[in-house]
Amino acid sequence: MLAIVVPYYKLTFFEETLKSLAIQTDKRFKVYIGDDASPENPNDLLEKYNGKFEFDYHRFKDNLGGISLVQQWERCVSLSIDEEWLMILGDDDYLDSNVVASFYNNFNDFNSKSNLVRYTSKLIYENLNTVSDLYKHPIWETATDSFYRKFSKESRSSLSEHIFSKQSYLKYGFHNYPLAWNSDDRAWIDFSDKRPIYTINESIVYVRVSSFSITGKRDNLLKKNASEIEFYKFLISRKFKYYRDYQRIEIIKKYGKEIRRYRSLLIYEWLFISYYCVRYFDFDYLKKGFSMTINKLKS
Predict the structure, then answer these.
(1) Does 189 lie in the same domain as 118?
(2) pLDDT value at position 239?
């Protein structure tokens, strides 16, 4: 019923991931490992865990994650067979021993009521050798409210601590943003399909932040910026009815800020912002944006 999909590339922390799967108190899951043509062969390590939990390992001939992380996720998911629920677990993240057990213990509470289950999480800051506080969530919460808590830095969210229905995944898929930034945020809004997210607060997923993560390079920052522009435009044009006026304005401001981080607004972008500012009555922001535009045209 539950497939845990691991897109594999780096060996450094992979054993901790495998160990956390081996110690699950409930073995009703199958792991699918998709090797993205990694230069670091995991076969010896996988042999060590052979028989400790059920898994299939497949090595892809070409590296796809360097081109599109989303497409690598998708081809790894395609390795799964008839499981109805999916988790994509990073190859450097790991689980509490009762994550799978708590999924089944809570199953009757969320089945047919939600397409998306999330766990509490902690961040492992590898370079600082520290662990974050626990990130808990409301038991039931809309996906749009969940994102706004992340947006306002009251919470966090990433790929590994979610389980989603295969039916929702097949309906929507992952949106292929550059470097997959915001692809998970978009997925939770899409996959929820107007149903609330269900949270399991008694189990923890540990998400690692290390120098091996995608960070820092200017070309990556530019791709992140392009991703955020596209994602916030999606929120404004498709999901604004689910937000309060003050939230809508903050999202509009974020959209404009991301554009202006590297370039001036184009005319159609200014018109887009202007329309929603007028619609939601933030004339001060509209006036400020108009003045900035005029000054840009004069310079």
Answers:
(1) yes
(2) 96
